[in-house]
Write a structure and sequence with these properties.
This protein is mostly helical. The chain has one domain. 75% of the residues lie in helices and 0% in strands. Helix 2 runs antiparallel to helix 3. The longest helix is centred in the middle third of the chain and has 37 residues. The relative contact order is 0.10.
Length: 137
């Protein structure tokens, strides 16, 4: 009986986290992804680059941390329910490792790209002070 109650509580906590994750995302990620149309005016070719940049920023700063957090919770859940089953234990470890390694690869790639462009002094000779931002007039 005790195990059923504990599993029920664990399920409810996990369900609450999954249901609240979109509201956390909305609180962190404000602003429009589509930079033109409606009140902003007609779209131009430059807005295509701004849209692409907005999508990448949204994925990196809003979606990836939330998905990684959910995967860490899922991996921890597998570790908790594994008991004596080494298969579930290994699966939980693989999920946690994949979530952490994925985040590290994504942010290290950003840092390396930024360092590369800064070391080439690309910002000075191209006039792009912040190469990752696009502003259409």
């Amino acid at each position: 009986m005790k195990i059923k109650n504990m599993n029920k509580k664990l399920f409810l906590i996990t369900l609450a986290v999954f249901l609240l994750a979109p509201s956390f995302s909305y609180a962190i990620c404000e602003g429009n992804i589509v930079p033109c149309g409606g009140e902003q005016g007609m779209c131009t070719f430059c807005h295509l680059f701004e849209l692409t940049n907005n999508i990448i920023v949204y994925l990196m700063t809003c979606l990836a941390p939330i998905i990684s957090g959910i995967m860490l919770i899922l991996g921890g859940f597998y570790l908790m329910i594994a008991g004596v089953d080494p298969g579930k234990m290994e699966q939980g470890k693989q999920i946690i490792t994949a979530a952490i390694v994925g985040l590290i690869i994504m942010f290290v790639a950003w840092i390396l790209l930024n360092t590369f462009f800064s070391s080439l002094s690309m910002a000075k000779w191209t006039g792009l002070g912040t190469w990752w931002e696009f502003q259409c007039d």
